[in-house]
Amino acid sequence: MSDAAQNPSPTTEAGAIRGLHVVSLAPGADLDGFRAAVRRLIAGRIPPETVVWQSEAPSLFGIDMDRAEGAPLRLPRAVTDLIPMVVPHRDPERYGLLYALIWRVLQGERALMEVASDPLVHRLHRMRKAIGRDLHKMHAFLRFRRVPGEGAERFVAWFEPDHHILAAAAPFFVDRFRSLNWSILTPEGSAHWDGTLSFGPPGRCEDAPEGDSFEAGWRDYYENTFNPARLNLDAMRAEMPRKYWRNMPETAAIPALVRAASARAQAMIEKEPTMPVKRDPVRAVAKMAQDEPDSLEALNAVIARSEPLVPGATQAVLGEGPVGARIAFVGEQPGDQEDRQGRPFVGPAGQLLSRALEEAGIDRREAYLTNAVKHFKFTLRGKRRIHEKPTAGEVSHYRWWLDRELDFVGPRLVVALGATAVLALTGKQIPITRARGPAEFGKPFQGFITVHPSYLLRLPDEAAKDVAYRAFVDDLRRANALAA
Ligand code: URA
């Protein structure tokens, strides 16, 4: 008797359909159903090419998966981490592709996930990225509105994700809005929080309130953090597709801001540089502690509104990258270019860092990049603004923000680029040469210490530069592996 006959397929009648095994899962993202099916299929040694996965419609055959647990499988972490990030994808082939991967891994290709050129691995990586982007959009663009009326306060949001991500996205909102009662309505289902998280049937756009008293607050925040020098309409439309605009009160401000952007940017550039005058750090830190932002957006709004400790900078330079990034990089402070453009690591050191990241196999867009100090500090030499290293007092002034920022981003590993970043992350002055490599920062993430890319730019001769650059790329590779 064949193995499959001894261990019937998960769907008892499926074997009858010309040797195919039909697995029926719930519509949407049925992670538990998929895991249970995989255990049973593997126990039955049923190869992927004989399995038909059915999930988008009620089962043609009216067969429900038997959810009894099979024996747990021993899969590499890279595979177990991937599964929940692919199951929510809208592609009907997602379960089949995942099962094919699991099959091959269990047949002996244990390191298959590391073979980025394998077409199956490549496709699954792309699917995982699409889910990451969709989650990021939902986390960033969903807006709750207060339900009008007398009773207990309640908030409702309408959102249309591209994939089946409601269940995967909900914990983020539980974390951020734990003290509120809220519902998220989507065309496929709804999530509700009143101290307990539950899921229900689909909602309709009309079921969410039209607007509320928070709208002005969102618009203010957007107007305050909008940087005219960074306006790039194509990038903006790609990052914030129009379909989300109608749920986002702040988008009402966009047309006017866009119209005024080039004049405002020109004014920023033409502003005569002035010599900095120092503020009182004790009062500044006390003021900062009064703000208790409850999200990265709210924190960034506070940072964007803040005055530089040492005046002179055009603007605060905020961190950049997705919430939930696996790896974060902390630099020293923005330089001249960063100050003008309002983005971290866009000047010469930033460009060198980008090149090194690419060589180390790290996608800059998936990492989080920020600085220990949020404002550019300089001395004037003629009209040139010459970078000045922040003092220990200035670094400690910004530490509270950096800590909150990394709490919200939640990376697995943080790379300190240079001594100022180490000081900001540990509170200690530690020579890089002694501490280079994996490190413990006493924080809920792993640490890694390496040099700052501007150190490489300052090295006097090309041969030394080359050796130091190679060592830097090696460090980034190591850090990337640790964060994996
Ligand atoms: N150096 C830094 O530390 N950060 C930047 O953003 C640019 C240069």
Q: Would you write up a description of this structure?
A:
The protein has helices at residues 3-6, 31-43, 77-86, 94-106, 119-141, 166-176, 215-225, 233-239, 254-270, 281-290, 296-305, 336-341, 348-359, 392-409, 419-426, 432-435, 453-458, 462-483, and strands at 21-24, 51-54, 145-146, 155-158, 182-185, 190-193, 197-200, 327-331, 368-371, 378-381, 384-387, 413-417, 437-439, 446-450. By secondary structure, it is an alpha/beta fold. It folds into three domains: 3-131, no CATH class; 142-212, no CATH class; 287-483, Uracil-DNA Glycosylase, subunit E (3-Layer(aba) Sandwich), CATH 3.40.470. The strands form four sheets. The protein has a five-stranded mixed sheet, covered by helices on one side. Strands 9-8-12-14-13 form a five-stranded mixed sheet, with helices on both faces. Helix 4 packs across helix 5, helix 7 (215-225) crosses helix 11 (296-305) and helix 14 (392-409) crosses helix 15 (419-426). Mean pLDDT is 85; it is low at 1-16 and 58-68. The structure holds uracil. Uracil binds at residues 331-335, 338, 344-345, 347, 349-350, 371, 454. Residues 331-335, 338, 344-345, 347, 349-350, 371, 454 line the site of uracil (URA).
